[in-house]
Each structure stands twice: as C-alpha cells, then as structure tokens.
Amino acid sequence: MNDYDTAAQWIEGSRHAVAFTGAGISVESGIPTFRGPEGLWSRYDPKVLDLGYFYEHPRECWKVIKEIFYDYMGAKARPNAAHRFLAELEKAGKLEGVITQNIDNLHQEAGSWKVVEFHGTAQTLVCTECGERTPFTEHDLEDLPPLCKKCGGLLKPDFIFFGEAIPPAAYQESLKLLEKADLLIVVGTTGEVMPASMIPYEAKGAKVIEINVEPSAYTHTLTGLFLQAPATQAARELASRLKIDLE
Ligand code: ZN
Fold it and tell me: Is 23 helix (H, G, I), strand (E, B) or coil?
C-alpha cells in the first residue's frame, strides 16, 4: 500500500476532517505567491499593505493594490483540481470545512460551502470610517481611492494588512472546526506566516495529511503522512481512490 492509499483510507475513516490551505493550492491557478524569488514582493513594495502608510498615501497604495489583487489575481484565476477535490469531499460528507489563508475566493468558486477566510477576502471592501462592507464590483476602481457611498470614508480591501489582527470571527470559527477534527489535511502552506501557521497545532490528536511540493515547518513536527507533490497531482491521486469525479 502506498501513501496515497493510506491517505485515502484516513479520509474514508475520519468523521471530522478539516482542510487548511495556503498559497500553494492556488499556484496552479496562476496566482503568484508573495514570498520567494518569483514572489510578488520581489516586484512590489510590501509597504502598500502597511496600514499606516495606506492611510497616509491611499491613492498610491490603491494603484498597486488594484494591480495586484484586482487586475492581476482576480480577473483570470479559476479553481483547479485541488480546490474542486476539497469541494467534492465536502459534498460527499467527508470534509467539515476549509480554513484558508488565501484571499482569492477560489474555494468558494469551486463549490466549497464552509470556508473560513483566516486573512479576510479581496471580494469585499470595508469602509475605514463606518465599517460598511460592499462587494468590490460595486466600485469604480478606475477612480482611486474608492470611497464609501454611505459616508465618503476611505475604503480598504477586506483582507488584513500587515500588523492587523486576524478577524475574530474567523479565528473562533477555525478553533471550533479544529476542536472536533480527527483529520487535518494541510495543502500548500509552508507554515511560515504567523499566527495562521499555528492553526494546525490546534487540531489536537488529529491525524495530519500534508500535501506540499517541499517539506515544511509541519513535515517533521505534526505531519503523519507527507504527500510530496503539487496540489492538483495529489488531489487527482486521492480523488481516483475515493471515487470522486473532478471533471
Ligand atoms: Zn462609510
């Protein structure tokens, strides 16, 4: 029996499986990562996501934010087989939900219902004055910075900037999911971004399947079964064993 057979067995045998995903699951959808030599931060200055700098230079920051998150990421990216695999697992009653560090909405687009967005989302904008949240599609991003239609306040994307706290509701939801978890499927995350990286350790006593192209901070500490492969490849291997159709 190889590791994929074992992993499929673990999934079959679990009662409360939860997935934890990061940038690596969306790479094959064409979404660039932030870190690393090819990452976005090698081309853009990360200070545009520094809250203090953003308030002082909203127009300058928004020009870059629009380019990265709304022109570049948002327009073309489609969910891949790994996103679909998790959505199908949930439909089959074999997955309780996904906790994601991604802000790209691809889990929802793939059909996942229970998605906890640990870092928020790019899909809505939040008013920095009155707190009103609206879909970004309701705003003209040619005219920057976008302003609140209710109070005229400055709008920011509804994902967290550097130094901002994790949305409390997302944190609570994550803990609730992990409290009962007997299986955690970690996909495409190196475990470097705090405090999200601590989340898998909350699944106390759960078996852990890790899918990553390279070993991570979890591989030798937490992981029970390390499937070293791109996310879509591992998803296809598992799907065929679990009789899940990804097409
Ligand atoms: Zn407002």
Answer: helix
Interval between CA 107 and ligand 1 midpoint (Å): 29
Beta pairing, strands 120-127 & 155-159: antiparallel
Residues with CB under 5 A from ligand 1 (ion): 127, 129-130, 132, 148, 150-151, 153
Question: Count of alpha carbons within 13 Å of 144, Cβ hemisphere only?
Answer: 17
Per-residue pLDDT of 122-149, as tens digits, reads 999 999 999 999 999 999 999 999 999 9
Distances (CA, A) of 97 to 83, 115, 173, 194: 12, 6, 10, 21
Query: How remote is the CA of residue 155 from the centroid of ligand 1, in Å?
Result: 8
DSSP 123-187: EEEEETTT--EEEGGGS-TTSSS-B-TTT-PBEEEEEPPBTPPPPHHHHHHHHHHHHH-SEEEEE
Question: In angstroms, how far is the first alpha carbon of the chain from the final one?
Answer: 26
Q: Are 79 and 29 in contact (CB under 8 A)?
A: yes
Query: Is 119 known to be catalytic?
Result: yes
The identity of residue 41, as a single letter, is W
- Domains of the chain with CATH codes: 1-29+79-119+165-247 (3.40.50.1220), 32-76+121-159 (3.30.1600.10)
Tell me the whole-structure pTM to 2 decimals. 0.93
Among candidate residues 107, 119, 139, 220, the one labeled active-site is: 119
Q: What is the spatial distance between Cα 41 and Cα 62, in angstroms, rounded to a whole number? A: 16
Give the mean pLDDT of 32-43: 80
- Look at residues 53, 48, 56, 58 and name the one whose alpha carbon lies nearest to residue 154: 58
From ligand 1's centre to the CA of 127, what distance in Å?
A: 5
